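Homework-ish question, so no full write-ups if that breaks the rules, but can someone show me the predicted structure for this set?
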Amino acid sequence: MLGGIKGMMVTIRSTLNGLRRPVTAQYPKQHLPIQARYMGFPALTWDYKIDEPFCTACMVCIRNCPTLCMSATMKDNPLQQEGKSTRKKIVDTFEINLNRCILCGICVEVCNFDAIVMSHEHEMSVYERNGDRVDLEPLLDMGKQFQQDTAWVPPSELAKKSGAKAEEAAATSDSGA
Ligand code: SF4
Ligand code: SF4
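A: Not a homework solution, just the prediction itself:
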């Protein structure tokens, strides 16, 4: 009997708490904030220093994608020929069928050029079966938005900075010893 009353009190208390501070949202009218590490659809990044994509269409991500939902072609980089870029090849076309993407992040893990990110984009529902085949321009737009929203720094630059800091700290502790 006493146990039953205690259980009822717990239920009433949690119902009242839920009414005061609901943990659910009336989506799609209401949107909860996206967490910094949220993994939405993959997107391509833009190199603002040179004003071109990071992607060289090297095909590594495409070969490693478990759902085979990506394709790309490359071309000679005109900016390299003008001496403005070190990338000999640059992406010419790129397509991801986002309806087949499982958001695994493997493409981001295997890319050696900081060229692809898991963006915060996640609202791209369409009625057509092939309606989410997204090509280069929208993928770059999604990437630019992500770069802007998150003050993105290329992972290789971050790694260099943290490597330099670690060396500095080791040198300081050596000189102190
Ligand atoms: S996103 Fe990265 S791994 Fe994929 S084709 Fe471009 S450069 Fe290569
Ligand atoms: S997140 Fe996974 S499934 Fe989606 S494009 Fe990248 S490798 Fe393919």
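Now go work out the reasoning yourself. Hint: Helices lie at 2-20, 60-64, 78-81, 106-110, 136-150, 155-176.
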